[in-house]
Amino acid sequence: MLYPKNQMEFENSFNTDEQCLAYLFELKYENGFECKYCLGKEYWQNKRKVLVCKKCKQETSVLSGTIFHKSQLPLHLLFRMLWYMIVQKNGVSAVSVQRVLGLTRYDTVWTWLHKFRKIMVLPQRDKLIGRVELDETFIGGVKKGKRGRGADGKVIVIIAVEIVNNKTGRVRMAIIEQADRKCINHFIKNNIEEHSTIITDGWKGYVDVQKMKYTHQIETKTIAANGENLTPNVHKIASLLKRWLLGTHQNFTSEEYLAYYLDEYTFRYNRRKSNSRGLLFYTLLKQAVLNKPIYESQIS
How many angstroms separate the CA atoms of 60 and 53, rounded? Predict the structure, then answer.
């Protein structure tokens, strides 16, 4: 299926709600229309743009069952919001989108950006494989109290990084309640393929790695005076993540919504070498159609 390759093609393709709706129809019924009630293949469209099955006469909307279901914003504005979000290399804030699109309600823009971030985690995505570096970092401002893995008042984010030809490959990250065996083991099982080699420091929370059908490589050398770290690739990703949160979002990311920003950063980093913003736009629109409706109450 075709997708816009630049701003001009986007403007020509999605200038009206009708164009946007037709594109979503092609995404939703890429193998042809099929009635969800009787599996009929033929339909007609009434004046309300609703599809009516010729066989059983049941009605269905192209937008039903998608994240656009019951949206109060016009489709062409939502398409522009997603496009603007994708083409900006470092992402966007709700304030910048509100200004560019001339929308009056900040809360509406904020909610929709989070909906789009939510669909950036692709279902059944491949797990990391091969050599994988694993460590935790802490998100939050400078606060009094203990430091390190038991730091108070900060969010613990666990990060896994594939090492491919001595370079960073794909990443995975998630918020965990504690840097203990239970939380770490759960993250490993969900994100790293069995029989991979997991590289960690000597933290006791990783004690079960070898028992879980993985090869465990423990880095125990003393950290060098020049600042060398035991898990340098994870710390590189953590540093870039914090810089992104500070630069794009002015660090205005509460613990309650941090997971959405982690999903966006993971999506962007894993596709950093993509030369086609249009393809990323298409990928997320496809997810938007396949995903169940996401209501404001599920986010705010």
Answer: 8
Output the pTM of the full model: 0.87
| Domain-wise residue ranges, the chain | 7-122+275-298, 131-255
The single residue listed with the structure tokens 């669909």 is: 119
Helix (H, G, I), strand (E, B) or coil at 232: helix
Dihedral sign for Cα 66, 67, 69, 74, please. negative
What is the distance between the alpha carbons of residues 89 and 141, in angstroms, rounded to a whole number? 25
E strands, the chain, in order: 43-45, 51-53, 59-60, 131-139, 155-164, 167-176, 197-200, 215-218
pLDDT tens for each residue of 137-191: 999 754 455 545 555 568 999 999 999 999 999 999 999 999 999 999 999 999 9
Identify the sign of the CA torsion 277, 9, 93, 187. Answer: negative
Answer for the pair 231, 200: CB distance below 8 angstroms, yes or no: yes
So what's the architecture of 131-255 in CATH? 2-Layer Sandwich (3.30)
Instruction: Give the Cα separation of 161 and 134 in Å (integer).
Output: 7
As given in the structure block, the two tokens for residue 109 are 């823009």
E strand or H helix at 234, and its extent? helix 232-249
